[in-house]
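A.,

Following up on our hallway conversation. C-alpha cells first:
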C-alpha cells in the first residue's frame, strides 16, 4: 500500500487495513 498523504479517507482505509 502507498502511505503518501494522510487524508481522512486514507486514515479510514488504514484502520481497515489490518
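Then the amino acids I'd put at each of the 18 positions:
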Amino acid at each position: 500500500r502507498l502511505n503518501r498523504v494522510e487524508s481522512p479517507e486514507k486514515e479510514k482505509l488504514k484502520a481497515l487495513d489490518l
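Helices lie at 8-16. Curious whether your intuition agrees with the design.

B.
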